[in-house]
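Please, why this fold?
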Amino acid sequence: MAGHGKIEKLLDKARETLRREPRLIELDKGRVVFVGDTHGDFEATVEVVRRYFQPGCTLVFLGDYVDRGPASLQNVNFLLEHKIAHPDCFYLLMGNHEGYAVESFHPADFWESLDAELRRQYAEVLRLLPLVVSASNGLVALHGVLPRVPALRDVNRIELGSEEWHQITWGDWREEKGGFLGIDSYTGRPQFGEGWFEQVMSCWGKRVLVRSHQPDAPPVIYNRRCLTIFTSSAYRHYIAERTIAWVDLEKEVWSTDDVHLERV
């Protein structure tokens, strides 16, 4: 792979930037745009940044920047460059495809395309990504499923590879009653129901969850309190349109009706 030196410099700067961030990001002003999985869809990422990254706006990407799509390396490097340049209004949350340092998975075409040294360096950088965004207007965002921790601030103590980490990065929601519903025999992902959602949201004092990760999930579930978005062309058989979601933090959100959706 060409350009090792340039990539290594980028990763060094990204490591320095991300080490200063907590696992829990708290936002309380301006407009926030949430971006679902991009999965190597560099075109989608560039369009989101071009269209929405403006003064007074914070971008929050919800994870899964690599694998499946045709331009994973370009995609993740572009995102890291913007994170370095705009550390306080450009956030990259961790998805399961950024967790290669913790456990291997399939498909992992991006990771498998790297030589051993670059694979190690990317893994070390991406393991530093934050896990959850908490907004002051009643909204919370992450990649997969809400982790069962006593209080929102305890997100900062979640260890990579822990049960709570797996809930955030690998968990799926199902439109069923109950809490933990077991491990899906096909995907190997942990499954969770409405009871789990209600308990954690109540504990955290939140009303609406925005997340990604699960392209076959209904966009809106749990009495219009859980919104799933996807911003990649990698799953065209599930997702007809790439979408983002945005909110104004000056306005309270009570349901997904208060979250604005737009096509990319």
